[in-house]
Specification:
Layout lengths: L11 E6 L7 H14 L4 E6 L6 H5 L17 H4 L1 E4 L3 E4 L6 H4 L3 H15 L4 E6 L5 H7 L4 E6 L3 H18 L5 E7 L2 H19 L4 E7 L3 H8 L3 H4 L4 H20 L1 H5 L6 H5 L1
Parallel strand pairs: 1-5, 1-6, 2-4, 2-5, 6-7, 7-8
Antiparallel strand pairs: 3-4
Length: 277
C-alpha cells in the first residue's frame, strides 16, 4: 500500500508547525491529540521533528524503536507504533540528530510514508509534529498534510518567523489553507489581536486569508504538567489552558466533518503530483 491509495477511514492529516522554538508547538500537538482521543476519536501522533524529537520526553517514555528502524530490512510500521493510551491514542517516535532522517530527500520521505500508510488508515486523525523553522525538510514534509496548523505566540519574533513559514510554504509548495493557533496569551482578546496582525500581513503581502483556530491562555498548570511528564489534558483537564485546547480541538473536528467525503476520495497525505498541481 502506498500514499497514493485512497483513504477509507477519512483520516485527516494535520501538520503542527512553528516558525521558532519555544512557542509550545509540541505540547499543543500532544494535548490537542489527547483532547480528540478523549472525545472518542482514534489518533496517531507522529514525532517528525527529526532534529530534536521530544514527544517521548513530554510523556516520560523510552520507546525501544523509532522511525529510524523503518529504514532497516524487515522492519514493519507496527513495530514502531507505541500506545499512549489504550483504545486508540498512539505514538510514532522519532530520533534526534540521525543523519538518515535529517537528510531525507523526496524519494526517501515518500518511501517512509508508503511503509506507514497501512497504519495511518486505522485512525481518524494523523498528527505530525514537525521541527520549528523553514528548513526544506520540514516544509516539504509539512506540505503533504491536509491541514497545516501554525502555532505562534504574541511575541514579535514568533509572528515574524511564523510569517516566514507561511510565505515559504505558499511560494514553494503552493499551500494556502493555513490555520493559526495563538499560544501563551494573557486573554482571548490578546489572542485575537495577535492573529489579526499576522492575518493582515498575509492578506496584504501574500494575498492569503488565514483561518483562526483560537488561542490558549498562559497557565501555570502547563509547565507543571511538563515537569511531571504527563499531558496537560490528563494532569489538569479543567484548567483554563485545557479548556482552550478543547475548544480548538472542537474546531479541528468540525473541519474534518466539513471535508467529509473529500477525505475518503483523496489520500491521507498529498503526493508530489498533487502538490505541484
Amino acid at each position: 500500500m502506498d500514499i497514493t491509495e485512497k483513504n477509507p477511514n477519512a483520516t485527516l492529516s494535520v501538520s503542527i508547525l512553528s516558525g521558532k522554538g519555544g512557542v509550545g508547538k509540541t505540547n499543543m500537538a500532544l494535548n490537542l491529540g489527547f483532547a480528540l482521543f478523549k472525545a472518542g476519536h482514534r489518533l496517531l501522533l507522529m514525532d517528525f521533528d527529526v532534529g530534536l524529537a521530544n514527544i517521548d520526553v513530554l510523556l516520560g517514555l523510552s520507546p525501544e524503536k523509532n522511525l529510524q528502524d523503518l529504514f532497516r530490512p524487515g522492519a514493519t510500521a507496527e513495530d514502531v507504533v507505541y500506545p499512549i493510551e489504550s483504545g486508540g491514542f498512539d505514538f510514532l517516535p522519532s530520533a534526534s540528530g540521525v543523519p538518515e532522517l535529517l537528510e531525507m530527500d523526496e524519494d526517501m520521505r515518500e518511501a517512509l510514508f508508503s511503509k506507514l500508510n497501512s497504519v495511518f488508515t486505522r485512525y481518524d486523525y494523523l498528527f505530525l509534529d514537525h521541527g520549528a523553522g523553514i528548513s526544506s525538510n520540514v516544509l516539504s514534509a509539512a506540505s503533504m498534510s491536509r491541514m497545516p496548523i501554525l502555532v505562534v505566540t504574541p511575541e514579535p519574533t514568533s509572528l515574524t518567523d511564523g510569517y516566514a513559514v507561511i510565505k515559504v510554504l505558499a511560494a514553494k509548495h503552493r499551500v494556502r489553507n493555513f490555520h493559526v493557533l495563538v499560544n501563551q496569551v494573557a486573554s482571548a482578546k490578546e489572542g485575537q489581536r495577535t492573529f489579526d496582525r499576522l492575518a493582515a500581513a498575509c492578506e496584504r503581502f501574500l494575498g492569503l486569508s488565514l483561518s483562526f483556530l483560537g488561542s490558549v491562555r498562559l497557565d501555570a498548570a502547563v509547565p507543571d504538567a511538563v515537569r511531571r511528564q504527563v499531558p496537560l489534558m490528563k494532569h489538569a483537564p479543567t484548567c483554563p489552558a485545557a479548556q482552550d485546547i478543547i475548544a480548538v480541538a472542537v474546531k479541528i473536528h468540525r473541519h474534518r466533518q466539513k471535508l467529509g467525503a473529500k477525505l475518503k476520495e483523496g489520500t491521507i497525505l498529498k503526493n508530489i503530483l498533487e502538490r505541484a498541481s
